[in-house]
Design a protein that fits this description.
Strand 7 and strand 8 form a beta hairpin. This protein has twelve helices and ten strands. The protein has about 325 residues and is of the alpha/beta class. The chain has a five-stranded mixed β-sheet with strand order 3-2-1-4-5, with helices on both faces. The protein has a five-stranded mixed β-sheet with strand order 8-7-6-9-10, sandwiched between helices. The chain is about 45% helix and about 20% strand. It binds 5'-O-[(R)-(carboxyoxy)(hydroxy)phosphoryl]adenosine (KG4). 5'-O-[(R)-(carboxyoxy)(hydroxy)phosphoryl]adenosine binds next to helix 5 and helix 6.
């Protein structure tokens, strides 16, 4: 089965062709990072316009790289949310146009399901599983009994992890997107600054990162006022140590409680080296799945793979009234 995936929820325009939910024939990603860098973050209206410029050329490039004719596609899978509404609409309308033109089945996929199923490209998924979803907009702990069964057990009460990384990067003078830059500097430093570990109340699987972020900001501002210098490497290492300790501890606790087979890490922050190292150090019990870096951040191959499994499970296609949603509840969409 050949699935054409389409992703445009934020600042990447991506189209992919994936065979049988596994073999990525092509995965073209056009990133707008350089365009948004000068603003220090993604500007929604600018993002939508660039999706419009790019999208049809990316469809063509993807099919040509996969050496697949439009007629050969069996299913179109497109991200319908959550994300920036203007950006999402470009991908959804392009996908619907393709489906209408070539008489193809189409299904809408939840962006976070896409991140989780990025793991199915290089690993076999085994259930029950716990998924730690860490991205620029989301931080969630999800229990999965089976394919496409999502129970959100914990989530951030304020900032998403990626958002905290991006803000910390800004305050220490690193450019957008800050996550990879903080990760790199962290590996050159040591955990020397005393930063809080926010576990919230006992037995809570929720997260909070705004206090940690403010602690870093205050530390830098106080040092500036006193004309003292900050060791950026050590500050990044200390911030990363605090984030990773809490993420790994809560994930392992839930994995033990639910007696899962597998721990799945997904989303842009799953590219973080410190997080990977911490999981490898602390986890001896569970099979650990983390995607390769190219499948961690937004891409259409993960949407095609999620679309494949979604279609296998529900055997249901959408129609051309398919719409995009800035907010979209994962549990509700797939009704556990
Ligand atoms: O999943 P993603 O591509 O987009 C969303 O759906 O949000 O995630 C982007 C986020 C950004 O906040 C970026 O700074 C963060 O993932 N990120 C990282 C790393 N690579 C990307 N954060 C920490 N360490 C990294 N290596």
């Amino acid at each position: 089965m050949l699935v054409l995936g389409v992703e445009s929820s934020c600042d990447e325009t991506s189209v992919a062709v994936v065979k049988d939910g596994k073999e990525v024939l092509s995965n073209v990603i056009n990133s707008q990072i350089d365009i948004h860098k000068r603003f220090g973050g993604v500007v929604p209206e600018v993002a939508s316009r660039h999706h419009v410029y790019q999208v049809s050329m990316i469809f063509e490039e993807t099919l040509s790289k996969a050496n697949v004719k439009p007629e050969e596609i069996d299913l179109v899978a497109v991200t319908i949310g959550p994300g920036l509404i203007g950006s999402l609409l470009v991908g959804v309308n392009a996908a619907k146009t393709f489906a209408l033109l070539y008489h193809k089945k189409i299904i809408g996929v939840h962006h976070l399901a896409g991140h989780i199923y990025a793991n199915a490209i290089e690993h076999e998924m085994h259930f029950p599983a716990v998924a730690l979803l860490v991205s620029g907009g989301n931080t969630e702990l999800i229990y999965m009994k089976d394919h496409f069964s999502f129970e959100v057990v914990g989530e951030t009460l304020d900032d998403a992890v990626g958002e905290a990384y991006d803000k910390v990067a800004r305050v220490v003078g690193l450019s957008y997107p800050g996550g990879p830059a903080v990760d790199r500097l962290a590996h050159l430093g040591k955990d020397t600054y005393a930063l809080p570990r926010v576990y919230l109340e006992e037995n809570s699987y929720n997260f909070s990162f705004s206090g940690l972020k403010s602690a870093v900001i205050n530390l830098v501002h106080n040092a500036n006022q006193r004309n003292e210098s900050i060791n950026r490497e050590n500050l990044c290492a200390s911030f990363q140590a605090s984030v990773c300790e809490v993420l790994v501890a809560k994930t392992l606790k839930l994995a033990k409680e639910k007696q899962v087979q597998q721990i799945i890490v997904a989303g842009g922050v799953s590219a973080n080296q410190g997080l990977k190292e911490r999981f490898m150090k602390e986890n001896t019990e569970f099979e650990l799945c983390i995607p390769s870096i190219r499948y961690c951040t937004d891409n259409a191959a993960m949407i095609a793979v999620a679309g494949y499994y979604q279609f296998q499970k529900f055997k249901k296609e959408d129609d051309l009234s398919l719409n995009a949603y800035a907010s979209l509840d994962l549990e509700e969409l797939y009704e556990i």
